[in-house]
Amino acid sequence: MPGGTSDAGADGGTSLVPDTSIDQAPNESAPADSGESATTTAAEPLARDPLTGLERPSSSVLDRPAMVVKIDGYPRAQPQVALESADIVIEEIVEGVTRFFAVFHSEIPPIVGPVRSARTQDMLLAPMFRVPLFVWSGGNAKVSAVVRNGAIVNFSATNQGRQRGVWFRSDRRRSPHNLMARAPRVFELAADHAERPAPVFSYRAAGDAVGGRVVSGVRVSMSRTRVQWLWNRRVRRWERTSDGVPHVADSGARIAAENVLVLEVDYLPSPADPNSPEAQTLGSGKVLLFTAGNLIVGTWEREAVEDPWTLRDRAGSPLLLTPGKTWVELARPERTAIIDVGVEPDDVDFVATG
């Protein structure tokens, strides 16, 4: 389907009405998506989930497409619903704040959101995931034209009449930060669309050396949003703080990841809207990998939109991630401050924003 977008769903019209179902089940993953099998035997071969690198019995690696959801990053949108369930989250700068390009595959929660609009930079990222289901609220005419021509399956709230049962607005939140999507319904409507994603990153095997140096965390200036990641040795994950506030999902789960990648990229005006920045994720640049409590500095390269990033350390060896969830910060160059071991985070200044 690389030739362009497909619009999923063929039902009749419907209206977007308030719904309180999120109050009862904000983030309970469907049992069928747990990936565990009580009858699995030791002889069954293992395979890796394509977007987490976690090993599981090969029969339980799910043969379904990835789902990308554009999730609101504005402070009033917190706490987000099911953001902690995404396999990969790419944080992008939009107009002064950030937005999340959240990729779901191994876990499909019942509800995701708040869902917001797309940007042209999203169509430079989506092809890495092999025609994903793309869930977004809509956009201006020029951005919408770019998305419609992208290699995605289009789930826009502007198509709600053809996507009965996907969309609702939560009466717990104020517009525009209250648009929610029912993820299982997205997959039902896309049963004949898209394909399973290919691996995006390479992962370290158990027992392999990590490399790099031990650090406590990092502070990243993402335009006006100040992001901090601190290593939690107890849970062996990096925990996110945004603008000085611990980032917690609607379920109460702390937003955390096994890996944090800071990709230094340039931002240029979007061809669809000169007031909207567009991350230049093709080409090459510097990368900082935070994994297993260590920092490894290297480079990233990417030639085509269908390609994943090629990540290498300074010696030219592939950068290997810890199996698990990964966050990618698309940061402007020189906007990162390292928190060394023994240093209080508040003693490390954020680099000037902008």
Descriptive report:
This protein folds into two domains: 50-189, 3-Layer(bba) Sandwich (YerB-like fold); 213-347, YerB-like fold. It is 6% helix and 34% strand. The protein has four helices and 26 strands. The strands form five sheets. Strands 1, 5, 6, 7, 9, 10, 13, 19, 22, 23, 24 and 25 form a twelve-stranded mixed beta sheet that branches. Strands 14, 15, 16, 17, 18 and 26 form a six-stranded antiparallel beta sheet that branches. The chain starts with 5 loop residues before the first strand and ends in a 15-residue tail after the last strand. Mean pLDDT is 87; it is low at 9-41.
Our count of domains comes out at 2
Low-confidence stretches: 9-41
Residue-averaged pLDDT, rounded? 87
Q: Name the CATH homologous superfamily of the largest domain.
A: YerB-like
Strand content: 25-35%
The backbone outline, from C-alpha atoms, is globular
Helical proportion? under 10%
State the gist of this model.
This protein has helices at residues 21-24, 122-125, 141-148, 183-189, and strands spanning 6-7, 18-19, 46-48, 55-57, 67-72, 88-93, 98-104, 111-112, 133-136, 153-156, 167-170, 179-182, 213-214, 217-222, 225-232, 237-242, 245-246, 256-257, 259-264, 267-270, 273-279, 283-291, 294-302, 310-313, 326-331, 336-339. By secondary structure, the protein is mainly β. The chain folds into two domains: 50-189, YerB-like fold (3-Layer(bba) Sandwich), CATH 3.50.90.10; 213-347, YerB-like fold (3-Layer(bba) Sandwich).
